[in-house]
Amino acid sequence: MRAIILSIGDELTLGQTVDTNSAWLAKQLAGIGFRPAAHLTVPDDRDAIRQAFEESVGRCDALVVSGGLGPTEDDLTRQALADFLNQPLELAPAALENVERFFRALRREMPEKNRIQAMLPRGAEMIENTAGTAPGIYCNYLSGDQKTVCEIFIMPGVPKEMKIMFERSVRPKLAGGEPGRVGPGSAGVILSKTLHTFGLGESAVAERLGELMRRDRNPSVGTTVANGYVSLRLNAYFPTPAEAERQMAETASACRAALGDLIWGEDEQTLPEVVGRLLAGARETVTTAESCTGGLLAKLITDVPGSSAYFKQGWVTYANDAKTALLGVSPVTLQREGAVSEAVVAEMAAGALERSGADSALAISGVAGPDGGTTEKPVGTVCLALVARRDAAGGSTRTFIFHGDREMVRDRSAKMALTMLRFHLLGKPLPF
Amino acid sequence: MRAIILSIGDELTLGQTVDTNSAWLAKQLAGIGFRPAAHLTVPDDRDAIRQAFEESVGRCDALVVSGGLGPTEDDLTRQALADFLNQPLELAPAALENVERFFRALRREMPEKNRIQAMLPRGAEMIENTAGTAPGIYCNYLSGDQKTVCEIFIMPGVPKEMKIMFERSVRPKLAGGEPGRVGPGSAGVILSKTLHTFGLGESAVAERLGELMRRDRNPSVGTTVANGYVSLRLNAYFPTPAEAERQMAETASACRAALGDLIWGEDEQTLPEVVGRLLAGARETVTTAESCTGGLLAKLITDVPGSSAYFKQGWVTYANDAKTALLGVSPVTLQREGAVSEAVVAEMAAGALERSGADSALAISGVAGPDGGTTEKPVGTVCLALVARRDAAGGSTRTFIFHGDREMVRDRSAKMALTMLRFHLLGKPLPF
Q1: CA dist A281 → A262, A277, A285, A311, A359 (Å)
Q2: B275-305 burial, b for 16+ CB within 10 Å, e for fewer?
Q3: Contact present, A6 and A56 (Cβ < 8 Å)
Q4: Most confident of A322-336, B68-82, B393-407
Q5: How far does Cα B120 stand from its chain's mean position?
Q6: CA–CA separation, B233 vs B196, rounded Å?
Q7: How far is CA B387 from CA B352, B392, B430, in A?
Q8: Cβ–Cβ below 8 Å for A105 and B293
């Protein structure tokens, strides 16, 4: 089965926005046995969009479209679809209800302008949008001579709304089953799995994987780096799902044997979620004392629904005075060692542990940049401390030098703090 | 002048790599007066690539291609170009010298495999690659009936090599001038500007813009939504840069007149940066007291380099006990009004203001979800408070209902808190 992915928007063709939808959709489609034959991007131009429909339907079994469903005059996808189908746009009551419900939830009146979002070409169906105002559009296109059949799915361009709509409605319709299952008429199955690591560089991870990364291996193992995580992408191509699953499980085991606890999770799992589960399992709580990360560590911990079970409070002590006033860090230590020092983070963590009554406390202080670096403590230098109530040794401190800009240094610092906590909860030493 | 951007590679069509080349190229092309009519991505498939050439040349003046020039068997762009041009591949001595020079610089022997990279279709020219092994390919395509003329540029897919080659050779060839200037033979110049708003929905923004959003207007004004911000995209197409700049300034003024202070910034500016500049200008400091956002507000504020000038400390009081212990929120208020109430955020802000000595304090408490919603306070209900030292009125509190998942609710809450502070610093009431 072949798919074409069509993205619509001036901001895309003009390069003002990088199109991330197409890659995401391509991955999802490949996972259910649809091979993406092409990605196409056209501007908010009624003729260009119509032409894209015309030229695509004969070349694929599924045309997956995003963008141009908004309420404003530069949103022309529904009009172009109507032109292509040669059908009038009609008000669809179910779609109107979808739009109105969105505004009701916000306790706001629906602007007249949004009424257009409830219009569909005659014969098309609405796809429910549970995350925004724009319902999607589905139609099963059949050419006059009945030779061309193509399912058309149109979703909003906002990545989040698009993804939710794809998961809820488009994937089930296309696959008639779970992700990873063979699509109707597909020649085989592609199973994918991702394993995530943090702390080692890509080449160090590759070195440990060795022969597992051979190009001609099936399942294949590749590495990608994103947001500081080095992730292993496993792809298994086999004639049957059972064979693909068996082979995938075997290769995943081999990767785990090579990397051990460096692998913190897989697929959609997040590091804060995994650490949160460990905390909840141990019935322990954690608190935070942050300088250079400015609240990012607490934010990551509370990204997880239900984190209130193990996180009660945290401090952002950005200025030296605040470290002393809120956490009792000694001015002498600050003066003698500097704010970015293992002595200071140790006192920050101890102060937070005492004031919070938590089972453990994480503290971070560093030079996030772009300014503030010195020869001795260059930009990227970050001190971390973990102090635990049940830890007779009085906790541990570490200094890292993270590479990259301010955002990267802050991000890696918070993730390394979570990693220290993870290994602490696993009862193992940090392996780097 | 019209351009089409063609990207080639299985990793792109399968979604394993997000295509950033196309957006970058689109921006560059728009800057020299080429309107990108479409982006197209096809797999490493000789027929698919040839077909993409065939269908694109008649639709644009410049076809700008990247990818598929590597030395391995899945790199088929040069072969497909030869198929399309119906010309044999021949060894080009200048191209061979380019490849060999690269290996000499690495002090390595050129593998026999790389010889293919020195092959060009007869009549095509090499584009020098100063950053990698793969020379680019240029040809000026002229159809048999002489009706179609299209310049074809093929560059490597590696973003760094592609960009260097574009800057060195492709841009000068296309434009004969600087970015943003009119190229010889080009019909004009495209200038782009983006204006950012927060707080109103897309249709409400469009309503205020009215006629400014007319499809046939030049400069055009369109809206896009990303991360809760509704942004206005202005594009001006004019024969000369001076005219484009003048018209752009006029349209931007008209947008500002229609939306007033709802516009918080433009182009690459960020909301925390804009608020930070206002704080620094007023020589004021701010502190934060966060419940549902769990540190996100402090994180956003400290995203900005130099934020230590106006942000010294913040509290994350996620649990009720922490609100009382750290900020002095009355247990009676918590009990009577609930943690998500204007009374509680007012006490959180007052407590933070008092304990910090800052000039103003922001507090947030809400139901971020997915659980914890009630009929009275559904998921998305968020109370915000701003208390300022110099504000005799004792500050302001507001309740919003934000739509979306946990991440969206937290994100919008923090941005709305920044927006409250922004209007406070502007000395104006919140306009919604």
Answers
A1: 20, 6, 11, 14, 13
A2: bbbbbeeeebbbbbbbbbbbbbbbbbbbbbe
A3: yes
A4: A322-336
A5: 37
A6: 9
A7: 9, 10, 14
A8: no
Could you give the CA distance from residue B207 to residue B393 in angstroms, rounded to a whole number? Answer: 34
Which is nearest to A268 in space by CA: A299, A237, A304, A293? A304
Nearest CA in chain A to B18: A23
CB contact under 8 A, A40 and B39: yes
Token pair for B342: 């204007």
- Secondary structure string (H, E, C) spanning A210-276: HHHHCCCCCCEEEEEEECCEEEEEEEEEECCHHHHHHHHHHHHHHHHHHHHHHEEEECCCCHHHHHH
Strand-strand pairing, B149-155 and B62-66? parallel
Q: How confident is the model at residue A177 (pLDDT cuts 50, 70, 90)?
A: very low
CA dist A121 to A38, A153, B40, B163, Å? 25, 13, 27, 43
What string of DSSP letters covers A168-226?
Answer: IIIHHHHHSS-TTSPPTT-SSEEEEEEEEEESS-HHHHHHHHGGGG-TT-SSEEEEEEE
Q: How confident is the model at residue B110 (pLDDT cuts 50, 70, 90)?
A: confident
Is B290 in CB contact (< 8 Å) with chain A? yes
**Residue A232 has which token pair?**
């292993």
Q: Over range A142-166, report the average pLDDT.
A: 91
Name the band, by pLDDT with cuts 50, 70 and 90, for residue B184: very low
Contact A225, A233 (CB under 8 A): no
B102 burial via Cβ count (<10 Å: 0-12, 13-18, 19+): buried
Q: Tokens 């104006």, residue?
A: B428
Asked if B432 reaches chain A (Cβ–Cβ under 8 Å), the answer is: no
B392 exposed, middle or buried (CB, 10 Å; 0-12, 13-18, 19+)? exposed
Chain B residues close to A44, C-beta within 8 Å: 222
Confidence of residue B135 (pLDDT cuts 50, 70, 90): very high
Confidence of residue A214 (pLDDT cuts 50, 70, 90): confident
Residue A312's identity, in one-letter code, is: K
Residue B194 per-residue DSSP state: E
Three-state DSSP state, A306: coil
Round to the nearest angstrom and report the end-to-end CA distance of chain B: 44
φ, ψ at A355 (rounded to 5°): -75, -20
How far away is chain B from the Cα of A246, in angstroms, using its nearest Cα?
Answer: 23
- Amino acid type, B259: L
Confidence band of B181 (pLDDT split at 50, 70, 90)? very low
The alpha-helical segments, DSSP class H, found in B218-366 are 241-259, 271-282, 296-302, 320-327, 331-337, 342-356
Residue numbers of B between 295 and 314 with CB closer than 8 Å to A: 295-299, 301-303, 305-308, 311-314
Question: Out of A69-78, A233-242, B84-93, B326-335, which region has the weakest mean confidence (pLDDT)?
Answer: A233-242
User: Tell me, what's the ipTM?
Assistant: 0.77
For residue B57, the number of C-alpha atoms closer than 13 Å in the C-beta half-sphere is: 22
B392 reaches A (C-beta below 8 A): no
- How many residue contacts between A and B have a Cβ separation below 8 Å? 277
C-alpha B36/C-alpha B15 separation (Å) is 22
Those of residues 204-233 in A touching chain B at CB distance below 8 A are 224, 233
Q: Which chain A residues are Cβ-neighbours of B195 within 8 angstroms?
A: none
Chain A residue whose CA is closest to B288? A316
Distance from CA of B93 to the nearest CA of A (A): 32
Whether B302 and A288 lie within 8 Å, measured CB to CB: no
B222 contacts A72? CB cut-off 8 A = yes
Question: What is the arithmetic mean of pLDDT over A71-86?
Answer: 95
